[in-house]
Amino acid sequence: MALFTVLGATGFIGTHVARRLRRDGHDVRAPARDEPIGPRPLGHALYCIGLTADYARRPYDTADAHVGILNRILREGQFESLVYLSSTRLYDSAGGAGREDADLALNPNNPRHLYDLSKALGESLCIANGRARIARLACVYSDAMETGDFLPQLVRRALRERHIALDAPANGERDYIHVDDVCAVVIDIALRGRRPIYNVASGVNVANSALCTLVGALTGALITPAATKPGLAFARIDISAIAADFAAAPAPLDGNLRRIVPALRLARQAAVA
User: Fold this and answer.
1) How far does CA 23 lie from the centroid of its chain?
2) To 10 degrees, what angle do helices 253-272 and 150-160 make?
3) Which helix (H) or strand (E) holds 84?
4) pTM here?
5) Check: CATH 3.40.50.720 for 3-272?
6) What confidence tens digit (pLDDT) does each residue in 151-198 have?
7) Residue 148 CB neighbours (<10 A)
8) Spatial separation of the C-alpha atoms in residues 93 and 16, rounded to whole Å
């Protein structure tokens, strides 16, 4: 068993990965948000600190979370390995290429790219360090559907409402991966990773139109996406690295939703009974 330090252990990914590590018998250290890291060995550090939905409202906090705190740990921390959680959203500027070595087109004049630029700089620091690795995560969900991201919000709305009109275009698409698959791969990267960057995704994009049809069938809701938007292009995420190095085969979204949504529906019915 190994020592792990989970940085950002109160967040969505951090909570799940810390729980998984303890279940597997590892020694887990989970420093509080403002707790000094100190000179103690960190073992395998998992950097789960980050801002997502509110990055535009909190630009300075975003830079601190994705770069500033990371910089101090890379410079001063005593760790065997460090895994920095980044995002496959970086490929939104790369057209159809979702490979770890793809060139990225980032523009500081685009407010949306504040998130991407800060993550990319964090990645660059990790690569310069030499002992740190990067996990670019796709859209992560759990059985509880507890985050405020698009998929969990859609499922929970469909359990409450009979008719839903979405702002999201029908031809929008994303790669979705269950948090259990994420935890398994991130731990593997920490213990056995040998490449600087790994995509952590399912390798399959799901269009909003297909997602609305499936969630609607499972909940009984009529879900209508917005009209098709011309010019949209979404990268297909290449997961050949995690398949080759860790034999990872993340579960597809549709099978998981057929298990998760009925359970959530029953739990909701029991709560109001």
Assistant:
1) 21
2) 40
3) strand 79-87
4) 0.95
5) yes
6) 999 999 999 999 999 999 999 999 999 999 999 999 999 999 999 999
7) 11
8) 29
